[in-house]
Amino acid sequence: MTETTRGNAEAGSNILQLLVSWQACFTKEAVTDQNFQAIVEACDRAATSSNLSRKERERLTYRRAKILQTAGKVGPEAR
Predict the structure, then answer these.
(1) Predicted confidence (pLDDT) at residue 45 exceeds the cutoff of 50
(2) Would you tell me which of 13, 14, 33, 70 could form a disulfide with 77, CB atoms 3.0–4.6 Å apart?
(3) Cα separations in angstroms, 10 against 14, 22, 34, 42
(4) Distance CA 77, CA 17 (A)
(5) pLDDT at 70 over 80
């Protein structure tokens, strides 16, 4: 595999991971005691991408904060 091909494969893999994490972060699924941690972790994974704009990072930060706020309301296991 050439350096260019390897670089393209890594970039594609990073973008795919970003998309998967972004979708998991912005899931339409209700936040529950059972899933809130996985959603927050998905937001954190997405935020590590170097492919994000400032506005996208702000959206992730806001979403993460809303999930944590909601988690505090769904039950004691969420804290």
Answers:
(1) yes
(2) 33
(3) 6, 18, 32, 20
(4) 28
(5) yes
pLDDT in tens, 21-42: 999 999 999 999 899 999 999 9
Residue 43, burial from CB neighbour count under 10 angstroms (0-12, 13-18, 19+)? buried
User: What's CA 79's distance to the chain center, in Å?
Assistant: 19
Question: Does residue 70 sit in helix, strand or coil?
Answer: helix
* Average of per-residue pLDDT across 34-60: 95
Residue 50, Cβ density class (10 Å: 0-12 exposed, 13-18 middle, ≥19 buried):
exposed
Written as six digits, the tokens of 2 are 């050439």
Q: What backbone phi and psi angles, to 5 degrees, belong to 48? A: -80, -10
What is the C-alpha end-to-end distance of the chain, expressed in Å? 47
13 confidence band (pLDDT: 50, 70, 90): confident
